[in-house]
Amino acid sequence: MAASVAKSRSLPGLLAQAALVVLVLALPLALDPNGYALFVATQLGVFVIAAIGLNLLAGYAGQVSLGHGAFIAIGAYATALLTVDHGWSFWLAALAGVVLSALMGVLMALPSFRLSTWYFAFITLAFAQVFEKMIVEWRGLTKGFAGVVGVQPPSVFGHVLDPAGVYWLVAVIAIIGFWLVNNLIRSRFGRGFVAVRDAPAAAQAAGASPARLKMLAFVIAACFAGVAGAFFAVQKTVVTPDDFTAEFSIFFLLTVVLGGLGTRWGPVVGALVFFLVPELLTGLESWRMMVYGAALLALMLFAPHGLVGAARSLFDRLRPKQTEPAAQPAETVPPEAAHVERPAISGLALEVKDLRKSFGGVVALGGVDLSVRPGTCAAIVGPNGSGKTTLLNVVGAYYRRDAGQVLLGGRETKGLSPQQIAGEGLGRTFQTPRLLGELTVLDNVLLGAYRRERASLAGTMLRLPAAASETARLRAEAMELLAFVGVADRADDLASETPHGHQRLVEIARALMGGARLIMLDEPAAGLSMTELDRLEQLIRRILALGATVVIVEHHLDLVASIASHVTVLDRGVVLASGAPQAVFADATVMAAYMGERALNEQAPGQAADDAATGDVSRPRPAPVEGA
Amino acid sequence: MSRTDRTILTAAGSIDRRSFLQLAGLAAAASAFGTGLAGGAAAAEPFRIGWVRPTTGRLVTSFNPLYMGGVMAVEEINAAGGILGRKIERVEEDDEALPSKEPGIVRKLRGAGINFVVGPTGSSQSLSSIAATTAAKMIQATYAAAAEAGDGKRYPYHYQLLFNTDQQAEICVDYMLKKQGLKKIGILQENTAFGEQATASTVKYLKKAGVEPASVQVYPINAPDLAAYVSNLQKAGVDGVIAWIANIPNAAMIFNTMKSLNWFPPVTGHSGLFLPSLFELVSPEAVKNVYGTYYKSFTWNATEQPGERQVAFAKKLAELPGAKNNEVNIAASPYYDFIHLLKHVIEQTKSFEVEDIRRALDSTRDYPGLLGKLSFTPENHSGIALADITLASVSSGVDKRAMGCMRERAPGL
Amino acid sequence: MDIDILARGLVAGSLYALVAVSFNILYRPTNVFNFAQGELVMLGAMVFASLATVLGWPWYAALIVTLLGVGLLTLLIDVVAVAPVLARSQHGTGWVITTLAASLIIANGVNRIWGPDPIVVRPPAPLTTDTFSLAGMTVSAYQIFLVLLTIVLVLAIEQVYRTRQGKAVLAVAEDREAALLRGVNPLRLSHWSFFLGGAFAGLTGVLAAPVLYASTGLGPALLLKGFAAAAVGSIGNNRGALIAGYLIGVTEALGASLLSPGYQEAVVFLLVLCVLLIWPHGLFGRPFARTV
């Protein structure tokens, strides 16, 4: 969903939001202060708070957690036990609950570093079950099945809050929480979360650590759940194990899915529908679960972005069509593209010595040497499976090398993570462009600046002036870079809706945005039309002219011959030849190895690029990018 | 997932349960029809009582019979013209037998202007509910055996019209140590507020007699298999088990395990063990040494017979649709006595005001309830006297003299 | 250590291994891990118990109807909930949610039909659940039968994967597109696998019923323990699942005996978590390279 991180804030939208806030805050005036309706409204607010946090975790950062109830339980039990048994004030007890919940968030994040999505989903589901059992089992602490009874409402300035007061407190916290998370998801952290979810390698290439981002998402979601738990205890006045069954955890995820994973309003809409509708349909209570199951199934099949997503696409369909910006031919080069001035870049040297890597028994790199001088363009060519992409991956530390040296700007990179190496000034593009399809082109470029942004987490969430001005500055620079690569007119389009050729250019802009001083391009020309190829060649020349170093893996030998000053030919993991392009391409053995006898006889360099561009190392084969 | 994953095997099976529900539905419809007619005649506003019980969830089958006595009392009173001319109207709320649901339900009843509540059932559910009704000053009787629920200082608006865990524990310990002469006593407890308080009371009375429990096993009521707990008791070498089991499925698993281990120590426990549905899951041989706490007036021995009123009640139950196989549950429930007691004090004070009724209840002495003589003071809201409680044999349920709800006293009582 | 723990662990472990195998059957060609599997096992137990115990059908007739019924329901899950999601994105995890939704529907539907009350299922004669003493262990004839049958079933399934059809299934698991080029119809294979995986889950339920009672609450626990066995034994590896099933069963029994029966889930959870953190692909899996 573009709007999830989009910047546009129309006046009607703002007015509608303000009206909603007023409505929410005015609700108790219309309701019986001791009545059931206010009780339900407060509960709803509590669920919204927790759902906002879970949406950040599951919707944006993509961590499908089926154990969210445990976080809420920790907040609720801590608050209930500390206030009822130990006489703590609500505020201190709630703080303790949030801290404990956050600590649990740290623990829960650890398995997510190593396990794939659905393994992790299972582990969290198991955790929810075990946690429920343990609440009952640790009777000494939790009072077993009966739970903690008699939680008192908090007091503010010496006044004990009445039900309306508790409602207002919950409502205000929910609104503030919504605002904070909104600020977060429009920031570099939000882009980082989406990158972790959709393209972890792109996050690493931009210098963002997936592990850290996951941890951050977990801790924030856990804090929200802890706050929700504290108010859960106050609102219910009783905290029992039955409140926090594994089913409750699943429902929480389903709530967010129902509303729309990774949409701003998803958790709000989801919680409203999921928890309010049953109150209205009390007669159907025993059918409730089946209805939920069926609704969920239908939603996943027909509206993967939940109610909010479905509403939005309906809205888009009903809205009168605007003049299509996509109608103009994709290949026209904006004339001003070539004239964008960029500051000079001091290119990095790359030195690779005797680099070795094997997978199982298969040798992918059998002692490769490569030397690239700063500010030059080196090309790596070779047949499919010869180890070209593996070489890039080992240099970027996406694979751990078995042996050998990699010196970047004269410094050994052993032991550095991909994101640290990216921070050293190594940028890259991928064979299959790794763009975040649900973000705009501009946001994709901004992801590149992840490591350069200085604004703190708190500053970002609270939108402090320093953070806001930094954002504006970087946004301007990203626009400039889009102009530099020639796709400025597409800045606000969804990345998934931009043509394939443009996606490659956006990736280059993203690398430049990250301050890359050495750019590795992995088959940038694959699938490009002749016009696009021309543009690409011009762009690489301009990047070289700025002083950056370029390493290019390419099948398109015309392009290589034209821009590279040095060519290395790989075959089955070893260097077959290396030197100036003319000399290398004149070598018959090279051509034989590269294209086979038939090709040597029939084809001149240049047509080889028409070969299907498949991956070097078995997986993944390039899947068609949605909407491309 | 726990709400749906309980292995509650009320032996009757769901077929019985469904037919029961149909009958209950008929009964409800019939009574609604009746009140409708009467309501046309008497213009007086109905006297509304909150009626908290599960109508969905895993404990529907086990808990619903407990309310039939209360319904009977309501119908008896309405048929006789109501309380001071006002018909009683039950306002049903479904608590799914979950403690977490209770505060919301109390809020809902309170919002509807209701000041008198019957239910919920279960100590955990009740304590959760009582906390809310106490704050809202609503008069309530729950089916909570936990001794805490009978504390009038803590819960001045809640009345306990059944024997509590303290009384049950005293009876059981006394029987095991003195009548059976056993020394190594094991405790098997369900992990609920009832089990918790019953075990605490048991340990208290054992210690008073200078005995330490040989083993205490606590099982979650939703555990799929209880064999491990039973074999732990056997391994600890206990020769008598005080078992705080409140539902039949758990009881069946436990006694079946004892049978497969060929181990039949004397077991004493809660009146819930008397349900005939137990015999559908367990052979009578497996429960030959099992006794439950019960009301003396519903028991016989070689010399004494059950009370006349109780026998009349049993005959009435025999004609009540849906009562079959649930007679003990219906008889031992506090709700029948509570409704009649409520009528008694309202007519005495000629007031429907909460505070007037509370004062009148607090000064009740020796009110002749079905279960025993009921007395309350402002401090003590546990109405049953120890003298009215005894232990009865579970296997006597198959005896002809049982009439559904009567049982033979344990040997020596 | 008490030798009874071993007996209890092996019996429970066999059930977990059977659930894990049913996961594997369905996983191999589709790379989908069906979250509804636990409820399918439960459904198998309930259908069989109703037919055999309540209606008094002969056990073989009840068995056949149960396997067909559960198998067809699982096929329906594939057609309705899984295939459309996979058609949209081969690598997405939308099926986590859709199979979870299927699980919700089955669990609550079954609950509505049967209610929460369990049904006692007696094994067909001459097997009984009466215990006797064997080498110091308290066991029943049915328990011994269950353990042996599990081993036989696992070995038989392994044989199936050696046939031509079985190999096709493995090929699809490796590389769907490549298999497609070689004339294998992955959609048909995945339908078959869902049907067979479902039927096997139903069989597991039937076998579990005499040990655990047939109750609507069987699903979640078996889902997670079955997953644990499948994951620890490496997904797709049936022998691994068998060994891991035993490992989990015995660990659980040990935890119940040494700590408290209430801790058995926690002990299993910690075991699985530790194994997966050290060997993310289980004890018997092949490592594969991360790719960019």
UniProtKB/TrEMBL annotation, chain A:
Keywords: ATP-binding, Cell membrane, Membrane, Nucleotide-binding, Transmembrane, Transmembrane helix. It is a multi-pass membrane protein. SUPFAM superfamilies: P-loop containing nucleoside triphosphate hydrolases. Residues 350-597 form the ABC transporter domain. The keyword Nucleus does not apply. The keyword Chaperone does not apply. The chain crosses the membrane at residues 36-57, 64-84, 90-110, 117-136, 165-185, 215-234, 250-277, 289-311. It is found in: Cell membrane. Residues 603-628 are annotated as: Disordered. One of its GO terms (molecular function) is ATP binding. Its main location: membrane. PANTHER family: HIGH-AFFINITY BRANCHED-CHAIN AMINO ACID TRANSPORT PROTEIN BRAE, HIGH-AFFINITY BRANCHED-CHAIN AMINO ACID TRANSPORT SYSTEM PERMEASE. This is ATP-binding cassette domain-containing protein. It comes from Camelimonas fluminis.
Automatic annotation (TrEMBL), chain B:
It comes from the Bacteria. The lineage of its organism: Bacteria, Pseudomonadati, Pseudomonadota, Alphaproteobacteria, Hyphomicrobiales. Keywords: Amino-acid transport, Signal, Transport. The keyword Ribosomal protein does not apply. Belongs to the leucine-binding protein family. This is ABC transporter substrate-binding protein. It comes from Camelimonas fluminis. Residues 47-393 form the Leucine-binding protein domain. InterPro entries: BCAA_transport (IPR051010), Leu-bd (IPR028081), Peripla_BP_I (IPR028082), TAT_signal (IPR006311).
TrEMBL record, chain C:
It is found in: Cell membrane. It holds the Pfam family BPD_transp_2. The keyword Zinc-finger does not apply. It is a multi-pass membrane protein. Keywords: Amino-acid transport, Cell membrane, Membrane, Transmembrane, Transmembrane helix, Transport. Coiled coil: none annotated. The chain crosses the membrane at residues 6-27, 39-57, 63-87, 94-114, 134-157, 192-212, 266-284. Belongs to the binding-protein-dependent transport system permease family. LivHM subfamily. This is Branched-chain amino acid ABC transporter permease. It comes from Camelimonas fluminis.
